[in-house]
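Morning. Coffee machine broken again, so started the prediction first thing and wrote up yesterday's gels while waiting. Chain of 372 residues, entered below exactly as on the submission form.
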Amino acid sequence: MQIQSDTDGMALALEWAAKGMYITAPNPRIGCVIVRDGVVIGAGHTQLAGQDHAEIQALRDAQARGNDVRGATAYVTLEPCSHYGRTPPCSNALIQAGLGRVVAAMVDPNPLVAGRGMAQLEAAGIEVGAGLLAGQAYELNIGFFTRMRHGRPWVRLKTAASLDGVTALENGESQWITSNEARADGHAWRARASAILTGIGTIKVDNPQLTVRGIDTPLQPRRVIVDSRLDIGMDACILQGASCWIVAAEPHPEKEAALQALGHEIIMLPNASGKVDLPALMRELGRREINELHVEAGSKLNASLVREGCVDELLVYLAPSLVGPGQGMFALAPLAHLADKLPLHFRGVAQVGPDLRILARFRPDEDPNRHG
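Came back before lunch.
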């Protein structure tokens, strides 16, 4: 592929970054391509946590091809790290390799980096630039940026309903309102998340596994259960296999011990009403390095999360059908005035099989180039 401009180079780096969609958490999804005279001489993306970052992969790729990177340009979708974490600094590796120029899509909001990587490169005589295709880079790592800037994950709430907004019949039957294609698409969104959250109500009614299926990924998202009174049955499907984080508000020592014996962790976060403190839970998940949180819950927990300002984005699948009376997506209290409605910003509408997929956000998008 011929690289005719910086935009071409960064667009290709973003394609490489997307190859790490399901594997890099808690690290961001980063791509790097190294170009000389319009020709890509090395490329790579960030691997599993503790393994190579994108820059190291690209340098090794160039070396394996027998290419000399001295004086070449590296396009990276995020500022090269300048600190020792699970791996050594990428900025050092680029300097030692003799790159002539480094172009980053964005400055890293991680306070351990935050411009230091670019400054280190520039001090070593490497030409630097940042801000190219920043919007695309931001969207690819929206959870990482949210955690770095706000100390919590990006929260995406998924729901599926008929065209008249019904998620289940009055008797609880819900399988299946939407199509196989929509459910497969939903698993792709699950796979990109660091954790999946549900409530005890959904577990009692649907007994879900909440695992990723049909997606080639080495990582399964952590499963998080909101269960104020620890009502979960010990035979629940979600308790089988990998450990869960169970978030409660009332202590039950015997039940806690039984769940812990199965490898699950109990997190006590009560609020003044004796329920789980949802904003505190979001902060705790941020502390635990959860970048993107995917919610699949019932109308009550959905409404509580929205009411507490914990949801950033809705992922809604609408089937081309009318169901009539049944359960809705959000058990919100009635409004006295339309002026009190919760505004949303549409981000995208696409057809998935026979269904519509709608992405809508509660807050306007942040400036992707904002530092800190």
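The longest helix spans residues 6-18. Going to sketch it on the whiteboard this afternoon.
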